[in-house]
Amino acid sequence: MRRDGRPAAVCEGLVRIHTARSGPVHALRGIDVVIPAGRLTAITGPSGSGKTSLLRILAALDRPTAGSAEVAGHVLDELSARRLRAVRRRHIGYVFARPNANLQPHLTGREHLDLAARYRGTGRAEAREQGDALLDLLGLTHRAGSLPGRLSGGEQQRLAFAQAMVGRPALVVADEPTSELDSATTVELLAGVAELTRSGTTVVMATHDRLAADAADQVVHLRSGTVAHEEVAGRRLAVVDGSGRVQLPEAALQRFPGRRVLIEETADGVLLRDPS
Ligand SMILES: Nc1ncnc2c1ncn2[C@@H]1O[C@H](COP(=O)(O)OP(=O)(O)OP(=O)(O)O)[C@@H](O)[C@H]1O
Question: In the chain, which residues have pLDDT < 70?
Answer without folding.
Answer: 1-4
